[in-house]
Records
---
Amino acid sequence: MGETMRHGKWLATAGAVAATLVAGATWITTSKAQIRDATGAPIPGAAAPRPVLRPGVAAFVAPPRSRVDWQGAVGGLRQSGGLGENLGGNLNRQQVDITAVPILLPTDAKLAGNARIYSFGDYYTITADTAGGGVSFSGTTTTVPMPATKPLKIDSGPEQLTVQRTVDGQLASFVRYGVLYTVEIRCDAPSDPRCVDDNYVLGLVGKTTAVVMGKAARQAAGLGG
């Protein structure tokens, strides 16, 4: 899988989510009631038309947002002892600075060395290439409840840790500092042992502990810019 195609695949998911939110927020007015006469003057007693949804478009309801545990995040930052900043030195600083949540990186210099970050303020995703595949890490304050019928494997360890098989890999999600984080491995070959079971992705979760905080996160945590 080429680099451009792989990055496009990762970003397509974020684009689809954004498109869904935009579509869900689309409102139109179909009422034929008139509230002004031919001269443009208001008609006494006429009620303004009520907005209705376009058929097939659901009302936009903002998903619940978690409260970031900034005290815990600062503790994690100090515990990282500068490791996070060293590992994150390759990331686009502007993207890091606009990220309003604590960024988690794996304590793996090889992965961090070719990582790229794409930030949307309270949501970020980081991608990195590996031989025969790639990994991605994300964090967001938006929590989306999963359907009760969706099979999930729940393990002990990080808070609310779940692991599930994807089309081409494994995806783990967990909560830390009040933020929902995900770690994902994608493989070009279905037989790649990193994607056949969840051992590799769980190992990545265990390594994803280095905290990075840009200007927006530092300000929110009371550390200044």
Note: The longest helix spans residues 3-24.
---
Amino acid sequence: MKKFFYLLGVVLTSITLVACSNPKQEVKTVDNDFIELISEGLEKRYSMVTESEDSKTLFEAIKLEQNNLKQIEGKEFQNPELKTLYEKYLEQLKIQEENYMHFNNLDNYERHKVFMGSYNERSKIISTLIDKYGLKLNQKLSDEFKANSVMVISSEEIDKKIIESFSKVKFYKADSYIVRGDVKNETGEAIQNKSISAKFINKDNITVDVSEYYINGVWEADEVRNIEFYLTSDKSFDKIEFSVINY
């Protein structure tokens, strides 16, 4: 019996030693790596485009940022928000890669807006990383992105209020091809350089027409305007969805 307990003790000790010699390895997360890599990429991009403003250099700078960040693609993040910001930032770089040639090309204004829209989204992401996660950049670069982020967020809030102002109005058909309504500027701000796009949708949730109203001059806060949308057909609709176009 003593021999049995002795052998049992040897077996248990062996199991314990094996378990201790093979501890479960912790998964390495890349939260800090992301902050360091984005800082490195932004500083290098800034240096490149400062020295040369041609589109080829811009493309190379964008690719540098992409390749720098792709070092941690598919790896684990501890913080879910940082992972989301990482993925969103790569998406914006992809948009810029596809539209880099339109950075200063106002002849193709739609594609130019796409590129600049990506710059605005990057500004918001970078500002969040600076404020919440300690991203370090040179002062000029940091100030640029934070200032643009504030401007973009403010514009988005105004656009949201514009849509709310239009959505509460009961628009009516003045005739077969004109839809009218009196809209009050309830944003608290003077508005200019914007258009309101109206999508006319029927009872089957099918868009039957789209029209645009351009804000001529300055639309002062609390000013009421008689808004007209011109249709291309006399098809009936049941609701209108609004969006804002910035120029």
Note: The mean pLDDT is 91.
---
Amino acid sequence: MTGELPITTDPSVGSGVERFETGSLPLMPGRRVRAKVLSHQPWGVLVAIAGYEEAGISASVDMIALYSGTGIGFDELTALFPPVGSEIDAVVQEVRRHHPPASVRLSILPADLECLTWPCDFCGERTTVSPGGDALVLDVRSNDGPGSLTVITHRHCLAERIRPENGGERIRALRLGRE
């Protein structure tokens, strides 16, 4: 072999078929966005994220999940639903890219708009996902097919799991986005 890549007959390789939805890539947990409320649902609201209307992204604010455990009754909760047609400030809480279209869950809680935290997928302790925080957001993909998953981790939790011989990557995990 002369270093050339083998030719494949697999129609998904090199045929322009995307294995990974890319329109939602700029939407990461912790990013603030504007959204227009499209409809009310029993659990919350469906929204369109400004600038992503043509990307086919499904977006929502799960009001029940946001306010669970607060003691707010159903009637009080539905009164908090933003009106259909209104524009709201929100922060990306989760992005699911298991299969197209991407699904985005937003938060409108004032505390999350100020500083979103999320449990680290390695240690379980909360990490700050908002800009300037200590979290890294990893989009994990496979060469075998479409879709991805998102892993949120403390910088140090990821760095500790990179083998010691790969010191450069350990250091980059601690510095990424801070230089």
Note: The chain has five helices and nine strands.
---
Amino acid sequence: MKLLAVLLTFASPAVREEHSYPPKGSGQQRADFERGQANQAKFEQRLFTEAGFKPLPDMIKAKRIVRRSLFEDPYMMLPIPGVEVEHLSDGTVTVRVVGRAGESEPVKLPAAAWRHLTSLEGKILTPRPYVPWDPPKSDLPSPPPPPICHGWIVRFGASENAVQGSGSWAQCGGKDQPGMAFAVEMARLAVESHPSCKFDPTNPFWSFSTCFTPRPTPAKN
């Protein structure tokens, strides 16, 4: 009976896993926060490299000034490429589409396009500052699982003045969150640089996908 009681104790859903959280404002809490941010940036930029982009450290070494976006559809099933806007040393601004199959020829944009684009980025490409927070109380119930939401995700990258930037925007987080205007503008610049495509401001990311996502080749009999 004692053995059965022990087994039931371990199997009971009321038994909670113990966590040890660093105190608010401690060096460990700050270190954990900064490590998490660095790992998130590495993850985001690895996705760019896997999608066919040159690594940002290489862009910085070559003193190239770029802003880039990588799009993921709501079900993460389509091989959607990304877009890169570059500001050249002579003042020229170009846009190109980059994917696993290679990159398109750069298309020249008006100089004002760069100024407008960078005015939209705000602080989405810079690390968030550390703000101490209270660790969760051990006697609080576990939070419920988040609701399922399928929406677009857009990753960002930047290189300028030997500084690397990283960030992201998710449609499930709400339309008014920082990053949406920047993501939409990146999609618009790419689509409108392609004469055979039409940009739809009501469905900006589907516009990009429709224009640039490779279509499967029909099998030959």
Note: Residues 93 and 110 are 7 Å apart (CA to CA).
